[in-house]
Amino acid sequence: MLAPGSLHDSLQDPLLGSIGFLNEVMSRFPDAISFAPGAPHLADLLDTDATRSVDVFVEHLRRTRGLDLHGARRLLYEYGPARGLINDLVAAALRTDHGVDVPPEAVVITVGAQEAMLLTLRALFRDAADVLVVAEPCFVGITGAARLLDIEVVAVPDTDNGPDLDALDAVCARLAARGRRVRAMYVAPDYANPSGTEMDRASRRRLLGTAEREDFLLLEDNAYGFTKSVASGHPPALKAMDGGDRVVQIGTFAKLCFPGARVGYVVADQPVRTADGRIRLLADELAALKSMVTVNTSPLCQAVIGGMLLEHGGSFAELARERGAFYQGNLTLLLEALERHLCPDGRAPQGVSWNRPSGGFFVRMRLPVTVDEALLEVSASRYGVLWTPMSQFYRGPGGDRELRLSCSYLDPEGIDEGAARLAAFLRDIGAHQARTA
Fold it and tell me: Considering the domain 4-44+321-436, what is its CATH architecture?
């Protein structure tokens, strides 16, 4: 019998149970409309012809590598290189669509973005002097990976324009005074999960300047940028801007294609001088680590994603066009439904407010009461609507009067009905608060 104290401390951290908690709540209330999961909508993906996509990729291998049919198929049945099989396609799409000009050797294809985060943290963080900075509330995938690796995380507040950069300056100074340093900062400049915030161009420039001055790397999570409105004048990715050499970009095909493939990527073109004086790319080091973690990303899954990319002209933008428009429509519907159901007289219930992002999956709502699991239970059982307590995205105290709404998983009809149920729930909360005041 293994005692809890004999296992790694991270296994006792509530952070590791946050995703399982939401799944458990959804299973207990199957008839509730759920704004909880940040998962992609799957309806139009059920008709995806994965076999056709594999065939397209096999023909690509034959054409570009001079293989016969047997040799091309064999590549999909073997373990495959740790670095990946579709690196050339990803690098070309990044160059064409996002202005990120890196060679295929700078790209590592990973088992989702989660493995990319874990590998990058393991490579960069040498000892206890190195600190990871995040903006809080923060995606639990990165803080969870840091917890598994015993990496200290320091948070700065997340504002309506992304991380509080004045607070970041103060953190850098405070750590330097203690003989420690910011080794890297995780940032999602395009519609962050869970807050939905977007950084403007000036803030991106300032953040890149801070990284240069303080000598740390930026880990850019690019999961939601494809949902931007074409007419929004959206600023470029950090990796594509001046100073982008300090950016390690992490991406995923979970939202662009489908999550079950478990295919992501990391762009790590930073040079590394080895002990014998040779120069390698950080991507080489990540591939070496990957060979000891997952060996390789499934070649068959890469073939499906590669084929889907090729079927759309090798372009992220074309691959994302319909999906991005769908999510943009869902977000618009959610924001309009909240206004319609919560503000029938032009005013929201007292103490209730929310942000209005221009893209992504998430809306951040503030309430005048404590938002916890007990309140979620009431919302689900009595009103038939689920959401995510924002406190799960804080490492310590925080977010106890906030919740996250996700628009990605629902049909338009569900969004409107869910907003109506949420409005009834919040009106009753307000009435109860007024009676007990």
Answer: Alpha-Beta Complex (3.90)
